[in-house]
Amino acid sequence: MTRSSFLKWLIGIFGVAAVAGVVYPVLRFLKPPAAVSSAIGQVVNAGALGSFPAGRLTLLTVHDQPAAVQNLNGKYAVYSLICTHLGCVTGISGDSFTCPCHGSEFSPTGAVTHGPATLPLPTYHSQVQNGSLLVGPIDLSHAAYPTWYKGEFT
Amino acid sequence: MSASAGPVPQQTPSEAKRRKPGLVGWVVNRLGMDDLMEDQYNRVVPFHATNYIYCFGGIALVLFVILAATGIMLAVYYQPTPDTAYQSVLNISTHVQFGWWIRSIHRWSAGGMVLLVFVHMLRVFFTGAYKKPRELNWLTGVALLLITMGFGFTGYLLPWDQKAYWATKVGTDIAGSVPIFGHFLLVSLRGGEQISAATLGRFFDLHVLVLPAIIIILLLGHFFMIRRHGISGRL
Questions:
Q1: Contact check, Cβ <8 Å, A28/B98
Q2: I need a labelling partner for B96 at 20 to 30 A (CA). Which of B33, B209, B226, B233 fits?
Q3: Do A54 and A20 fall into the same domain?
Q4: Overall domain count for chain A
Q5: Which domains does chain B have, with CATH numbers?
Q6: pLDDT tens readout for residues B177-229
Q7: A25 at the B interface (CB within 8 A)?
Q8: pLDDT (tens digit, 9 = 90+) per residue, A115-154?
Q9: In chain A, which ranges are continuous DSSP H helix?
Q10: Among A33, A153, A154, whose Cβ lies nearest the Cβ of B97?
Q11: Is the Cβ of B76 closer than 8 Å to some Cβ of chain A?
Q12: DSSP-derived 3-state class of residue A35
């Protein structure tokens, strides 16, 4: 291979990469975002109970949204990790929740222990069946929760 | 094509030599673009203009092309009504795949274009490139600067958040302080005495229809005159 043809190949490869780097995001952009709300009613199997050790929170993704499973001595609860304040993803510290954006803190039961959030973290309907944890729709009945829990942005 | 009834056109040897092969050549030969293209290829950039300060206008043009492309894409998801504008922008930034990327490119290129157009103006001013016979190009340049700022002003309202609302309130108030015509300007921009759905509709119309049409016409004139005059002489 001559130096000239090598450079031509190199330019071609970089050219294709550059074009692909623009075309790929553009095509992804044009694809309508997945309708999260259509999946929200579905019940998903979150896994065997053994994967949720007691005394600490286990991270989980439910309908593409971040959540955490809490095991209080065999009593299971699934909390949404989306802060009720402005929709950031809260972090977990031990058995409670802390939002990195504006410092909201939630107790292990999801109640607000530190503002600016005013509403408790919502939970998902969940039940144990055949040794597995089934997670259903998010329970938004206890307060006037923001619409982002339903995947609504428009 | 060879079966046409008329006489076969005569070609001088040099014309035959210039005929280009391939698909591009097919188009070029049919439109007789060889001479035009050759004129473009053979232009010499004067040595004093091979300098970065002569690039600002070109960079501004690149940014304009980027803004047009990303703007067309943003218009796919943007909804210009007061009830849905903010939510649709939020949707683009948080939910549409690569939406944050497209919107950020649009936003940063917009700021960059205003800056580059202004710096380009400074270059033209301090190198004296506006002098005879280039006065007309300076004038179109002034219009292009104002239109670029018009793009910025109208685009700023479209997210329809608090900052957008109050910036537009202040901006249109300033237009309202013009003597005699002030009130007419204010209600024409706002579509009423107050900022409302009519204002959003008008700004959206200006941002995506009126200003692009005007800027493209002015840009073509601007570039035509650059070609006509050539790059201005050295200091």
A1: yes
A2: B209
A3: no
A4: 2
A5: 19-50 (no CATH), 51-229 (1.20.810.10)
A6: 999 999 999 999 999 999 999 999 999 999 999 999 999 999 999 999 998 89
A7: yes
A8: 788 888 888 888 888 888 888 888 877 778 877 777 665 4
A9: 3-30, 36-39
A10: A33
A11: yes
A12: coil
